[in-house]
Amino acid sequence: MKRWLSLLAVVFVMMVGMPASAFAASVAEPQTLRVYNWGEYVSDGSDGTLDVLAEFEERYPNIKLEYTTYASNEEMYAKLKSGSASYDVIIPSDYMVSRMIAEDMLLKLDFDNIPNFLDVMEDFKNPEYDPTNEYSVPYSWGTVCLIVNTDLVTEEVDSWNALWDINYDGNILIFNNSRDAFGIALKRLGFSQNSTDPEELELAKQSLIEQKGFLQSYVMDEIFDKMESGEAAIAPYYTGDGLIMQEENPALEVILPKEGTNLFVDAMVVPKGAKNKEGAETFINFMCETEIAYANVIDYLGYSTPIQSVYDQLDEEILNDGVSYPSEEYLATCDTFINLSDEDNKNLEEMWVDVMAAETGTEGGNPIFLILIFAVLFGLSIYRAVKKHRNREL
After folding, report:
1. Which of 152, 228, 363, 389 has the fewest CB atoms lying closer than 10 Å?
2. Do residues 277 and 89 lie in contact, with contact meaning Cβ atoms separated by under 8 Å?
């Protein structure tokens, strides 16, 4: 007993003499991991799906997640560029990954901490946006589709032209970001979605201004409520999200336009300024696990998977639905966005400002010039009728 008391006394003396910082370090505090992702873009446990973030925290109790969302690549880029916030993991699209690599905004990954990268399909390794595959790991991929409410649209739709159909005045939605909106306008006109030709871009801009006259609104995540509730007839959006909306509203049809579309890959990267790079790589590896990737991308997101072991488990219904995994022939008609030069990005944003500022319509969505023309023609018809009547009296 005396020996135990003596030992306790020694331990007590050591603890009293220990610096406060050393004592605090002996009781490990949870690390913070800041994840910045698109809205509606991770399985959250709704509808019986796996809550991926909760599963991660349960698996790694020493890591506490701080999860926030953005609506577009450009919003995310602007926030990081401003230095107003720091994150450990972000999930931009292909062309934005390329841009951030070029601007030295990303850290190289330690793939020893991401062994599940070996399960990434070969088609998604060494991509054009990260040719040495040092900075990114693919999260999901997909296309941009047309979502059509068949309760409001009775004729067959197979073209981007549907977004310019005045028969659906006030019932059309369009992307609220420059790259996607201009990409659709360019593709509809028969041009590359990566065009930087001034004449082609001007034509695309004018078509977007024309379209503005009969739009209901510009949207990003708001599209879910609008299309699921039947508030709009036609909208473009990401195919995986379209399939999710279809589950909520069976009247919605998901269509790949005949002209071709945007083929994109979203990837996980670690931005410079990350405070927990090792934790970030742990998270990236976790998201590539077969069970987690299946629950996240297939069960919840409805997107297409770049993970081989997940793809191998897909049933024929998904593989043959015509939109989740398009044919090689159709994919050949698609464009993948590339990183534009600073000058071209600036020009595109200025043209988008022109579209947003254009005065083309009233609240009802009808172009002002059409109203004026109608008023003039109506006035002329009255004038002619009165004049003709007076001539008869004479």
Report:
1. 363
2. no
Dist. CA 188–CA 123, nearest whole Å: 28
Domain ranges of the chain: 30-140+266-324, 142-263+338-357
pTM: 0.81
Find, among 132, 77, 139, the residue nearest to 342 by Cα: 77
Tokens coding 61 = 């109790």
- CA dist 73 and 126 (Å) reads 21
Cβ-count burial of 318 within 10 angstroms (0-12 exposed, 13-18 middle, 19+ buried)? middle
Q: For the chain, report the end-to-end CA distance as a whole number of angstroms.
A: 134
Cα torsion through 161, 166, 171, 176, rounded to 10: 60
180-200 CB burial, b ≥16 within 10 A, e <16: bbbbbbbbbeebebbbeeeeb
Report helix angle 198-212 to 178-188, nearest 10. 100
SS3 123: helix
Interacting residues of 56 by C-beta distance below 8 A, sequence separation 6+: 63, 65, 283, 286
pLDDT in tens, 31-80: 999 999 999 999 999 888 999 999 999 999 999 999 999 999 999 999 99
Instruction: Tell me the per-residue pLDDT of 216-238, one tens digit each, with 9 for 90 and over.
Output: 999 999 999 999 999 999 999 99
Chain position carrying tokens 């577009």: 72
Q: Comparing C-alpha atoms, which of 218, 215, 186, 187 is closest to residue 203?
A: 186
Amino acid at 199: E
Q: Does the domain spanning 30-140+266-324 belong to CATH 3.40.190.10?
A: yes
| Residues in contact with 140: Cβ distance below 8 Å, sequence separation at least 6, in sequence order | 240, 265, 266, 297, 301, 303, 304, 305, 306
Q: In the Cβ-directed half-sphere of 113, how many Cα atoms lie within 13 Å?
A: 13
Q: What's the number of CA atoms in the CB half-sphere (13 Å) around residue 77?
A: 18
